[in-house]
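Section 3.1: Structural characterization of target chains.
Under the original work plan, the team committed to producing a structural model for every single-chain target entering the pipeline before any wet-lab resources were allocated. The record below documents one such target. The sequence was received from the expression subgroup and is listed exactly as submitted; it comprises 456 residues.
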Amino acid sequence: MISHVFTELKNRIAGEVVVPDSPEFDGPDQLFNQVGSSAITVYVQSTNDVVTTISFARKHDLPLSVRSGGHGLSRQAMHNGGLVLDLTHIQQIELLDAEQHLVRIGAGARWGDVAKALAVHGLALSSGDTKQVGVGGLTLGGGIGWLVRTYGLTIDSLQAAELVTADGRIMRVSAEEHPHLFWAIRGGGGNFGVVTSFDFRAQPCHTIIGGSVIYDASEAEAVLTAWASSIHKAPEALNSTIELFPGFGSQIPPQITVKLCYAGEDQAAAKKAIEPFLHSGIVRSQNIQKMPYAAMLEDEVSPPPGLRLIDHGGFLKTMDREALSTLAAHYGQPGRPIAQIRALGGAMARVSPQATAFAHRENEAVVYMATFAPSSVTEEEARQIRQAAWQPLALMSSGAYVNFVSEVSEKSVTDSYPEETYTRLARIKASYDPDNVFAQNHNILPAERRLRHYGK
């Protein structure tokens, strides 16, 4: 069957079609935190290829996964035995309007390439931490990036998008065109169609002033407290993350890393804003300097061979003493999970929680926890590890950032969206994907199916 349908699809699209017995196949997919082998992988080259591939998957009743960067923690950017629609060849980065700073970016582009391309025009977009993260996945989940306090989420710069629906329609969505769908794709993930390109309004940004400060792990609570106090007083131009790292064997000792990104070229103002973060404890090293914004994006670090990353996250309404003490006591020490705390607020918080499907704007921080386990663990074992690692923060956190969720369950979805937001998303899902073709994600059931399944 695969050989027959392989030929059928290959003759209909401009892109590349790969199956396990084709010459192009070079073994199972090796993606961040996941290994697998789809029955068919389609590397589309155009929107028409996307239309054809969706139609093909539906015709042959093949489960459909959509992949932009392949960095998804939920392990759903592939599907063993199904069809993967891979967008990595749709990676154009165009300046549409220099005066208005409008840019068009293909969903398969990577944020490292985007940052470099926009720098040529003196522009930047708030994006992910690592160069290899795909534009599509990060944007659809919201986009908490290095300029979040200064310019908001990635979706707050989104002006329009091109999208292919489950029934093959090619649609342009914006505040004026299909506004309900435009609302949904700003935080609702890949539930509503395959987005092929995004139109953003970028921000002027030639360089930033930033880098990292590394503190001794023994001073975790003091450093956390000083960091939180400093970020409360910092201008919105300053963005920061603090990471509690337990060490890794004899290679990397336990440490606390404060990362800083000041969005502006005024070195005197940047120095004043950054100065309080340099005196929170015993400094092991620091590297604060003027640099291109693209330099803030790091190379991806995949889990070591044989290990799988198990993570969880949630939002902190306030970074109070109880939360900081809990983080210091339970994370970042040898044998404990990694914890990363990202400061929010600023421009992100000034957007109404109802304006987009990302609804967690009132929180001061988002916390991301990660621990390693053997790749062979079952999903039930992973769930137990995740629950135990997150338990100290469970009662003082709320919600979840869909891009930081590796668990695939109804709870992971309901944690990501308040009930009112989820209900609205489910209704929009029912309008554009009533058959739930796009189910290989943090899935929002179409409204009618949800009622039948959960009785509410």
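The chain is about 30% helix and 25% strand.
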